[in-house]
Design brief:
5 helices, about 80% helix, about 130 residues
């Protein structure tokens, strides 16, 4: 009886287990759908999971078909694109914030250097 239960459990597990390409696809699709809402902690978790996938891929690559390897590499590229979009978005936000504050910064810098009287008398505007 125990052997029968074990056999049924093994068959069920094999039927429900996802292949490496399928698991990577599910993961990358989830990242693509949600990356804009990720925190730094979320990204750390996602990067860790991706590192695990890449390690597993490296171990199994010779057993995969060319189609599966190409599919996985394309998914890796899609993940990197989501990471890049996040970094670009962060950079753009940083530049926007810097530009909002730049005028006041330059004004303070000029005053601190003692040049505000010279600029005002020459008709130059810092802003």
């Amino acid at each position: 009886m125990k052997k029968l239960i074990f056999l049924i459990a093994a068959v069920f597990c094999l039927a429900s287990c996802k292949s490496l390409p399928e698991r990577i696809e599910i993961f990358v699709s989830d990242v693509e759908a949600n990356y804009e809402n990720y925190t730094e902690l979320d990204w750390a978790e996602k990067d860790q999971k991706m590192a695990e996938f890449k390690l597993e891929y490296a171990k199994k690559a010779d057993k995969l078909s060319q189609y599966e390897r190409d599919y996985i590499n394309k998914a890796f590229g899609r993940y990197d694109a989501a990471v890049a979009k996040t970094k670009v978005g962060e950079a753009v936000s940083g530049v926007k914030e810097l530009l909002k504050e730049a005028g006041h910064y330059i004004e303070g810098l000029v005053e601190g250097l003692g040049q505000s009287d010279t600029l005002a008398t020459e008709g130059n505007s810092v802003l």
